[in-house]
Amino acid sequence: MSYYNYQSKNIFYEEIGTGKPLLLLHGNTASSNMFLNIANQYAEKYKVILIDFLGHGKSDRLDKFPVDLWYEEAQQVIEFLSQKKYAEVFLLGSSGGALVAINIALERPDLVSKVIADSFEGTNAIDAFTANIVNDRDFSKQNEGARMFYQAMQGDDWESVVDNDTNAIFEHSKLIGKFFHKPISTLQADILMTGSNEDVFITCVDTEFYRKIYSKMIKEIGHGDFYLFEHGGHPAMLSNQTQFIKETLSFLERD
């Protein structure tokens, strides 16, 4: 297993395949294990890089997650890219990982060529989601399917990881709210946003949420595109895996 150092902590990473670097960035309460069924397919064309953010998966644990979580995780990836001397990379982030990917592209446009941002909330935390996050997570910890997912992603200490993540999301919504430090209008990288119209995390807010928020963001950015799947749950990249790979490879391969 490979690790790199960030602020005296060890962060796990894995590289698969050869070619232009494509980083797959996991979502909240997940780890790079979420990409086990999809990484090798991208590795046929690219050097796929998997990272476990601090506090997750095979990386060192944290007593508490930073409140500005997705910005801080972006800094972890920026440090990795700097140490490896990678530039103009492709980023594919799912859910919380999409927020990380956009943050990286905003903070260091010299490092990023294209961004695929899947199944994310937009530019600001959604009150309807964060207001119930503590109760929803407590309920999920009693659900056998959710427990199996947490265990597969984090290992035996999954509950402390989930609790840390829950607290960070809740505090972020109260203290910060915005996901990005820089205006989305300054994004230079080409971007593709994806999501599912049946995503239960979002459709409970608005059945047209992704279409509305992605359209608004692309208008502010001045370029980019989005692709919505009619069916499938959260995140779209896993619930629509075959079609997702097809659409995203097409995006990555075009000039």
From TrEMBL:
It holds the Pfam family Abhydrolase_1. Residues 20-129 form the AB hydrolase-1 domain. Signal peptide: none annotated. It comes from the Bacteria. Keywords: Hydrolase. PANTHER family: MONOACYLGLYCEROL LIPASE. This is Alpha/beta fold hydrolase.
